[in-house]
Amino acid sequence: MPQEAIIVLGKRTWRRTAILGAVAGAAVTGLVLASLPASGALTVGAAATVGGFSYGQLQTQTVGAAGCGTNTAAEPSVHVSRGNLVGVASEEGLGGGSEYWRAHQVGGASGAGACQLAYSGQPNAVHGVGASGGDVDTAFAPALSSHGTYRIYVASLNLGSVNVATSDDDGATFSQTPVQGGLPLDDREWIAAYGADTSLLSYHDIATNNIDILRSDNGGQLYTQIAQAIPPTDDKASSNELGNLVIDHDNASPTPGGFWAYQSFVAPSTATGSEENEAFLAVSSDGGHTWTDKPIPCTTKFGKNGLAHNFPNVSVAPNGTLFYAVSNDSAVYVAKSTDHGNTWSCSAPVSTSKRAIFPWIVATSAGEDLVYYGTDGTGPSAVWSVYFAQNRTQSLTGWSNSKLMPVHQGDVCEGGISCSGGRQLFDDFGVDTDQSGWAHITYSHDAPDLGGSGSYTGYAVQQTGRPVGRPN
């Protein structure tokens, strides 16, 4: 195992291998990773089932092969393309690069399983060496590129920037773009795609703590900063925790040539406040060039522990309805808007465990799926599990909850550099649905087993139960 050093970016702490080479941060094109595995490809390990989901640890032993095995990545991202290509990325920590797995599969049958995803190698590094490997986020373009595929975007932090890897062949090869905007330091990037060739990239600018917005219109080859999500004179610009970035693919913007984009963040509800106790949504109708920050007033009633637990998360349904999930470190709540964030209503607690953190929601044409980490225990003996909540309407009531796989034992620390343990789950995980509405979840897990000091990335696909609808 390579030696590790500690890198601190803003509030966050990352593992960094000590083998940074001269290729770190350089543009690398045409990096060949893997083709989808042929029939009979190597399978390592096996999947298990719980609550109607097939789940297992993804393997990084054999590039190009499907199967369950072992990996050392954490804090993953999952998305499913409009062609039902499931893509999962996860990070090895700064200097270690990212990992990527993919397969065409639809849930709802025993043939869909956790071990079906093939390992594609490292899109943001070369042979395991590169400056990237910090926070990872992914996106699929919603329209076919000139290559006849839905372009894949994999964004990962470099030491002083962001690396965006793109693929036009379903993840067989990736090209890399080192993004220079926001230097010298940036933190926690998010990426979202529009059309065949356009994408937006957001991240925390460490110098100002504001949220910088960059845009590419050439398939991720070049990104240019076009805006900030919060006016620099606003008190929230220097006191906020950003969440994910999403784009509405299905509903026309009132701005010619524009599209709706949404950036989630939490901040103090007043200029003199110190607790990030209110959720906000930065809204753009012109493709990211200008933004209006809209408060979600009903989220201030969720307690005094703040809402950065961790992170705020927004999703837009195919009909344009917004669903926004937050945690106050005890419970998960959901807010809803049908008018682009102008007005909101909030739910009662959606979670059923005694403590619930790290929500991620996907809004679809026939309801919402939401995941969170939850526990009924306390202290070193607490066992945390992935919880799966589902609502088969576009209301804020009627949620059902299921406890799925256990993933962590002990305390969970969200304090970055101040943590002396409990960082195995890092800060987020994810859920998406395929075009038939079946859920796909990716999560972090203690390694080698519950209570272990390391982490690995797991994946789960819904085999039984009830699907919701297609995502935006």
Automatic annotation (TrEMBL):
InterPro entries: Sialidase_sf. This is Exo-alpha-sialidase. It comes from the Bacteria. It comes from Gandjariella thermophila.
